[in-house]
Amino acid sequence: MDSNHHDVTVRLDDRIRLMAAVLAATTWPERAQQRRPHGTHAHARATVRFLAEHRAHPAVQALQGLLDEGAPLEAAFAYALSLSWPGLEPLPGVDMRWAPPHWAAQLRAFYEQTGLGAWWQAEDAAWQNALHQARRVFARAAFRPFLGRIIEAVPEHLVFIPSISQPTDQDIGLRLGSALVCIAPPRLAWGDSPPWPYDEDPAHVYRAALTQYGRVLLLGYLRAHADRLAAAAAVPLPLSDQFRAMYPSWEEQFSVLFVAAAVAVYLEDHVSKKEADAYVLMTHKAHGMTVLPGAVSVLRRYLNERDAGRYATLLDFLPVFPKQLRVANRIVSL
Questions:
Q1: In degrees rounded to 5, what are phi and psi of residue 209?
Q2: Which of 1, 104, 177, 207 has the greatest number of C-beta atoms within 10 Å?
Q3: Are 332 and 297 in contact (CB under 8 A)?
Q4: What pLDDT does residue 7 have?
Q5: What is the pLDDT of residues 203-228, one digit of tens each?
Q6: Which of 302, 299, 328 is nearest to 238 (CA)?
Q7: What are the residues whose beta carbons fall under 8 Å from the beta carbon of 226, sequence distance 6 or more?
Q8: How far is Cα 26 from Cα 38, in angstroms, rounded to an integer?
Q9: Do strands 172-176 and 157-162 pair parallel, antiparallel, or not at all (unpaired)?
Q10: What does the alpha-carbon distance between residue 202 and residue 269 come to, in Å, rounded to a whole number?
Q11: Closest Cα partner for 321 from 284, 288, 283, 294?
């Protein structure tokens, strides 16, 4: 199910489909609608109905327990990718001691007892449509050289997995071994309308994938160089109270803001300025990211100066970022 286009591998993965199906049998779909009412893909709705009688299954209850404790979805999907297929045995070298006991065996039993294999076969056309749509989008993408200019060389494989099951309103990004993985539903439409096909809005797919790859890469990079952050982190960033409440630590604030600026730059350079401007406006409203236009200006300057040899790595730039952001924010606010 693999296809390589440039530097992004687009594929389906039955382990991801299995965890998405288990999620469909928890209270997650109802909670997602309570948070944000939205139309969902026909397959996602049908899967919830198909599994309604299996909500008490131990595999479902194990995931429900994690959700009730506030565990992120990334953890559950990373666990799924740590198992073999179709045996669902733990792969060597992956530490998943945090997971519920016997979860792998429970997931295997859930797959067999629910008849998911036959269900996916019956629904295969919908999955294949999503796969081919996403492949068409990524045939025109080139993330690796772009991310390499911002941080450093990106040796990881970039993997994009389209999902028309659960979650329907949230992108998932994770690192597993040498791969950065983005699992993403199609873009939501307005109200009760079904979501858009992936290839009808390539800019949205780029935003989703680049945000997840960039977030995972940058947070890992900062944690690996925590000793170099002190000078930069000592200077507060000029952020709204709403944004600070969502992202309390300096590392989170910088990562989210810097990656959002990177997405805007990529959209402007590889799609259109109109798409970039729309993204900046949307992100400003949704996350209180009032300084994003200034951050885009600072990132442009950093890229130009790094190309000119002023900065060898992002670490060299970090100490001057807060000051440059304050100046740029005042200028773009005029």
A1: -70, -45
A2: 207
A3: yes
A4: 83
A5: 999 999 999 999 999 999 999 888 88
A6: 328
A7: none
A8: 18
A9: unpaired
A10: 14
A11: 294
Q: What are the pLDDT digits (tens) for 121-161?
A: 999 999 999 999 999 999 989 899 999 999 877 888 999 99
What does the DSSP 8-state code read for residue 292? H
Phi, psi of 175 (to 5 degrees): -110, 130
| pLDDT given for residue 333 in this prediction | 62
| CA dihedral over 56, 61, 64, 65, signed as positive or negative | positive
Neighbours of 252 (CB within 10 A): 16
Q: 164 with 44: CB under 8 angstroms?
A: yes
Token pair, residue 218, equals 């940058």
Question: Which pLDDT score is estimated for 235?
Answer: 87
Q: H or E stretch including 151?
A: none
The amino acid at residue 38 is H
Residue 229 has pLDDT above 80, yes or no: yes
Cβ within 8 Å of residue 275, ≥6 positions away: 203, 267, 268
SS3 107: helix
Going by C-alpha positions, the residue among 122, 112, 135, 171 that lies closest to residue 1 is 135
| 334, pLDDT greater than 60 | no
CA nearest to 171, candidates 128, 132, 214: 214
Q: How confident is the model at residue 1 (pLDDT cuts 50, 70, 90)?
A: very low
Distance between the two ends of the chain, CA-based, in angstroms?
A: 51
Entry pTM: 0.93
**Token reading at 184:** 């993403």
**Two structure tokens written together for 158:** 């970039």
Q: Which amino acid makes up residue 84?
A: S
The amino acid sitting at 131 is L
Write down the mean pLDDT value for the chain.
92
Where residue 5 falls among pLDDT bands split at 50, 70, 90?
A: very low
Helices (H), 155-249: 202-224, 230-233, 241-246
| Residue positions counted in the chain | 334
